[in-house]
Amino acid sequence: MATILFRYVFPLMISLICTIVTIEYGDYLIYDRELMAAEPYRFLTSQWTHATYQHYLINAIGFTLVGYIFYKYVSTIVWLIMIFYTTLAVSIAMFAYDTELMYYTGFSGALYGLLVFSLFRAFPHIPKICIIAFLFIIIRLYLEQTGLFDVNINAELLGGEVWVNSHLYGALSGVIVGGLSLLFGSSSDNY
Asked: How far is Cα 8 from Cα 163, in angstroms, rounded to an integer?
């Protein structure tokens, strides 16, 4: 029961609270370029906020599915560390490289990082499935980055445009730690 609480319920509740604060009370937690240096907590909280409840629900479902599918390949403690790492990595990368980005909400970049990391952890056990998933992610990122795929078809539902670079930064953060984990990590299923 404690595993379920820490792995799913606790992170989803933090995200829901951040989303409620953002939607109902204002932009105190979102990524706001002008406030990032003075309020560095936003590097973490901005990834947990969402512009609409539908936006939250979409990311919550994705988060739960990734966590459930790869449960036996990623321990709860590593999962929680990766949540922290990917949220921070995406925000720092956006701050460093996307100087035109003024505001941001959402967890999808961190979710890409969690998915890619989990695929690396599962690769020794289910390589064919992981290769197919990696190819799908690479194609999706390519289409997003080149503009060949309209990610904003659901912009109204999400409460704004999708910032595709967050997906790229998240995936790269997963590649870095996932690749290192595959090269130097434990041979056990779950560490």
From this structure: 25
Kindly state the DSSP code that residue 5 receives in the 8-state scheme.
Answer: I
pLDDT of residue 159: 76
3-state secondary structure of 106: coil
Say how far apart CA 7 and CA 71 lie, in whole Å: 9
Q: Is 51 helix (H, G, I), strand (E, B) or coil?
A: coil
**Residue linked to tokens 């704004």:** 160
CA gap 63, 10 in Å, rounded: 12
Q: What SS3 string covers 6-32?
A: HHHHHHHHHHHHHHHHHHHHCCCCCEE
Q: Name the more confident of 75 and 185.
A: 75
Q: What are phi and psi of 67, to 5 degrees?
A: -60, -40
pTM for this structure? 0.90
Residues in the chain: 191
Are 89 and 113 contacting, i.e. CB atoms less than 8 angstroms apart?
Answer: yes
CA distances (Å), origin 179, targets 28, 42, 108, 133, 174: 35, 28, 20, 15, 8
Is the pLDDT score of 146 beyond 90? Answer: yes
Q: Specify the residue for token string 């539902």.
A: 157
Interacting residues of 24 by C-beta distance below 8 A, sequence separation 6+: none
